[in-house]
């Protein structure tokens, strides 16, 4: 039933700058075909998060199954909370939602390190 109505994934934020110790919240929203469509979050789903570090060729896989319903927008929202320990936690994070026999991919969220300038006196 939901197979025909759920068509794409939106990831937010597109880009965020972080410092070591910051916690970022990445969001992956499963969206219906149109706002007029009445859709409910599927009861059977898996959400995968992938991180491709800057300069790396292989992704790291992070799995999460957190969700919440946003009845007003009729979306399913999956969140990833990540504390940035060091530069190896930065990169581009992608989500993939597996439901109704389909795999729906997000466009990615770029998590970039922001470094403090040191001034010598």
UniProtKB/TrEMBL annotation:
Q: Which InterPro entries match?
A: Ig-like_dom, Ig-like_dom_sf, Ig-like_fold, Ig_sub, Ig_V-set
Cite the PROSITE patterns for this sequence. Answer: IG_LIKE
Q: Which domain of life is it from?
A: Eukaryota
Segments forming domain Ig-like: 7-97
Stored SMART domains = IG (SM00409)
Compositionally biased, Polar residues: which spans?
Answer: 9-20
Instruction: State the name under which the record lists this protein.
Output: Ig-like domain-containing protein
User: What species is given as this protein's source?
Assistant: Xenoophorus captivus
Q: Which stretches does the entry tag as region Disordered?
A: 1-20
